[in-house]
Amino acid sequence: MLFDMSNIFKPSVDNGGYYYSRLSDEQKSIYRIILSGIETYAEEIKLPMKPINEISMIFNRILLDNPTLFYTSSFSQINDLCKQKCIVKPDYKYSNKFVRQNTNHIKTCLQTFEALKTKRDIEKEMYVHDYCLNNFKYDYTFADYSYLVLGPVLNNTAVCEGIAKFVKLAFDYLGIESVVVSGKAKNPINSATEGHAWNVVKIDGKTYHLDVTFDMTLKDKTNRYDYFNLTDEDIKKDHTALDDLPVCSTIGNDYFSVNSLVVFTPAELEKIIGNGLTQGKKNITVKLKNVKNTESVVDKVMSVSQQQYMKIYKRGVTVEVKYNLNQAVFDINFK
């Protein structure tokens, strides 16, 4: 084997990698053959004759299930029609030496999470989420390794795919099942629809959507949790997955529900803001339900915030309201 991660976590084929589990028995066999070839840096991998689009689908699923395979992302295929065989030739980006060195960097980075192994799933998830937000930045330059797990590990920066792969790798290390999801999403900053990657994660037996990248891009002075443990209903407001995913239907375990920051009525908004100000908070983030007219809601949140501050402190204040209208999350700052 090119590198050995067996003492870190089990390979995805052994622990039931999600995309592997979605394949037919024949496709699983091909998956295992290709995976074994990539792990040993094989120049040629012999397979039964299959259309290139099917081999490509399996190849891509291997990479999603196994973020440590950062040294290849494409292949060429040669068909032998007479023997009804095909040869897959992976395109290896890096030398054996480079891969070994950086596998060690990955191991060292993962050991950051060692003390979490005895914690509850939700504590592990929160720590990994916050670790990413506090240590990584989104790479708007699309530099080397940004799409790979190496981006966060080596440069503390990556695009969504590299971040989602790091999150999966950390969860693998901590014994939490997760999936790297490929699809499209509406950027919460500029509303542009773009190719995107995020995670589905199983916490205490329940599955949720987790988009660390979007929370990272929304972060200012404080961490954001707009996309922490969302249901299918919520994530579909601005995300579309390319593949079928585990059902995420458990309501009430998102950040705002757990912390009693969900607002259904103007009276509830006044109460949450008032309680926060009484506790001396200068930043309060809430999630509004049943929002219809988003433009008027922004003005309403601003007005209520100013009124509550005046009520408690008997003086005016400058209020800045940042909002993610896709998820109806409002970040209120008193200055």
Please characterize this protein's 3D structure.
With 335 residues, this protein is α+β, with helices and mostly antiparallel strands. Helices cover 41% and strands 23% of the residues. The chain is built from 13 helices and 14 strands. A five-stranded antiparallel β-sheet has the order 9-8-7-6-10. Strands 11-12-14-13 form a four-stranded mixed β-sheet, with helices on one face. A three-stranded antiparallel β-sheet has the order 1-3-2, covered by helices on one side. α3 packs across α4, α6 runs antiparallel to α8 (160-174) and α12 (266-278) crosses α13. The protein is elongated. It starts with 11 loop residues before the first helix and ends with a strand.
What is the secondary structure topology, with strand pairs?
Blueprint: H1 12-15, H2 18-21, H3 25-39, E1 45-48, H4 52-65, E2 72-80, E3 85-92, H5 96-110, H6 121-135, E4 137-138, H7 150-155, E5 157-158, H8 160-174, E6 178-186, E7 193-203, E8 206-210, H9 212-218, E9 228-230, H10 232-235, E10 239-241, H11 255-258, E11 262-263, H12 266-278, E12 283-288, H13 294-313, E13 319-324, E14 329-334
Parallel strand pairs: 4-5, 11-12
Antiparallel strand pairs: 1-3, 2-3, 6-7, 6-10, 7-8, 8-9, 12-14, 13-14
Helix pairs in contact: 3-4, 6-8, 12-13
* Share of β-strand residues: 15-25%
Specify the overall morphology. Answer: elongated
What are the segments in which pLDDT stays under 50 over at least 5 consecutive residues?
A: 3-15
Q: Can you give the mean pLDDT?
A: 92
Total beta-strand segments: 14
- Supply Rg: 23 Å
